[in-house]
Design a protein that fits this description.
6-stranded mixed sheet; DNA-binding; 15% strand; 12 helices
DNA sequence: CATGGCCTCGACAACGATGTCATAACGAGG
DNA sequence: CCTCGTTATGACATCGTTGTCGAGGCCATG
């Protein structure tokens, strides 16, 4: 005789209950069940209890998607969120703020990563449209969002993050990229630097161009010629930034201060500075804050964006649009903030 | 006369097209449209083209949710993912790996943050069930998952991450927490330490308990009494960890090596070490890798988990279950890895 | 030319829910 | 006792899609 008690029991698989089952068990019509679940008026307390009991007994969960098919306004109670990558902390913060604001309204969030790939942007949007999301919040990559015109004219609520849309009119929530970069420039100038350099991200990314513009314009205003200032771009990962910085710093007349336009570029630059042993002599200001920046040697001065703030604002806007707000689209600017931590306050050699 | 060209034009809002519209425009029946879209056989090439043209012209997108209502197996092509917080990098990595694997199959991911709140866990699961997700991947917080028994017996695919479920049998993908912690202990012992300390997370978190166990057992094996070894727990954020470490290090007979059981605890400890100026004299090994750990002074030795690996494996398992795999549930262990970077190789004072 | 088989294709019901509307029950007012 | 308004309730159509099934057209075979 073998004992079977420790064998895996494939579970029974009773059909998932529907309103009909609940109605039958409670001895009422399905419409009454619907009324109870949706808290509609016109159900006696006794009936309500019977229905609730049946729901509990069957462990019934309303099928939101089936409901949305018929429901007025056809709300699916879901929105699509397109981010650079869900694994990057900046995106994560935005995602989190969005989740909290929308979750409170019973709206679920589909999140997806774009990886700077315009094709992917379109494919994901198509997938989300197929799910009939109530709204779209996205950090656009494609040069142009004209392909969204059909949806736009169907009044699909959309909010653009990080960059204003091209080809459709819609709300946008952005960081003051050029202003932030100008602050970085002003800060380095104020600390006495005249030999500056710019290390930047891919030039097809609008925010990268804005940052470059802000940085260079501010320097120009100070009367320092920008035509000879080293501007190294299209650095999209840590290692290419590191190598660019190494080369730059090993050149004949190296800069005494560097502005890096993005997180990974900042990391690469930090590595280069450290490898050459000049991390305490060459000034650095990076765009984007990061964890432990204050624990580095020296602490890294940054232009911090406020992703939670961006997320909260975007959530507000998409909710307002979903609720029918039809004001003219606006762009909301979230100010960046210079956080001095040491690396940006290094003064040029005398 | 005022010009209106720059005024906002609220867009027209033609109804979203359905298969019926496509069918009418193409001059075919709706079933034929369905066949074309789903690549079913039995449609002549000519008809196919007509339908595809109509789809393009109307900018039609199949309504996946409506389809899932009728489709065999009722797949909604969505899964729910419950993470500690979408804003934490560890969760982000898992999310990303999941998104990639499931996205390739046309499955969308609902992600939500638990914040270590058992109530939230239940609420979010209820919300996901209401959306009829095809599967659930979760990092459980609640002591017990017995409340999921009804779903489990309805064969809802589930995969648990980070911790084996209690109360239901299901696949789990976990890090070898106790083994990893033991490695940390062994590493510190091998470097000559005998005065060690443990700084840990909340004791109601299973992984935290595992790590403590692994750490203390390994030390016990080496013949060092663990009863007097400082074990400070329930440190759940950076600042409480910092304060605990400060106190510990200022005590009469401070440890020469510290093991911190989690990211935030590690950060707090690093701060304390630095504040006291002993970061180059007291050894530290932290559980969980983090960005720029190698750039700290000294580099921080960690027991790294592999969240991408965990994500990939979880995605594989949930897909297999969705595809009908009905083997007995298993627990998959993803090995952690000790990465020496300096802080863990500091030797005790002679 | 009749027959049968294959290929295309569409009518129809159904999925699980909700909006509409009709009806039953009941007490109030005449 | 009839009428009326109010409240509680359910029958039914419907949302957009897919599964089932049968109809019709065409071609090859005998």
């Amino acid at each position: 005789m073998t004992t079977m008690s420790d064998r895996y029991q494939p579970p029974l698989s009773p059909a998932r209950p529907t309103m009909r089952h609940v109605a039958a068990l409670a001895g009422v019509g399905i419409k009454t069940v619907s009324r109870v679940i949706n808290d509609e008026a016109g159900v006696s307390e006794a009936t309500r209890q019977k229905v609730l009991d049946a729901i509990g007994q069957l462990n019934y969960h309303l099928d939101v998607t089936a409901g949305s098919l018929r429901r007025a306004g056809r709300r699916t109670l879901s929105v699509g969120l397109l981010l650079p990558s869900v694994s990057n902390p900046f995106s994560g913060e935005i995602h989190r703020a969005m989740e909290d604001a929308l979750g409170a309204r019973g709206i679920a969030v589909f999140a997806a990563s774009l990886d700077d790939d315009p094709q992917r942007e379109k494919a994901i949007i198509a997938a989300f449209l197929g799910r009939r999301v109530d709204g779209l919040v996205l950090t656009p990559i494609a040069k142009n969002q004209a392909y969204m015109i059909p949806e736009h004219s169907r009044n699909l609520p959309m909010v653009f993050i990080d960059r204003e849309p091209v080809g459709v009119e819609a709300d946008a929530v952005v960081t003051d990229n050029s202003v932030g970069a100008a602050k970085a420039a002003a800060h380095l100038l104020a600390n006495g630097h005249t030999k500056l350099a710019y290390l930047g991200d891919r030039t097809d990314i609008q925010t990268a161009r804005e940052r470059r513009r802000g940085f260079l314009e501010e320097i120009g205003k100070a009367g320092i010629p920008t035509s000879t200032l080293p501007v190294i771009e299209n650095l999209h990962d840590e290692d290419s930034a590191r190598r660019a910085a190494l080369e730059l710093l090993s050149s004949e007349d190296p800069p005494t201060a560097i502005f890096s336009s993005q997180n990974l570029v900042t990391f690469g630059t930090m590595r280069a500075l450290k490898e050459l042993g000049v991390h305490k002599r060459v000034a650095l200001v990076g765009f984007d804050d990061f964890t432990l920046a204050d624990m580095m040697e020296p602490g890294v001065t940054v232009i911090a964006q406020h992703p939670e703030r961006i997320g909260v604002l975007s959530a507000e806007r998409i909710l307002a649009r979903i609720d029918g707000d039809d004001q003219a689209p606006r762009t909301y600017v979230v100010p960046s903030e210079l956080i001095p931590r040491g690396s940006g306050e290094i003064r040029p050699p005398a």
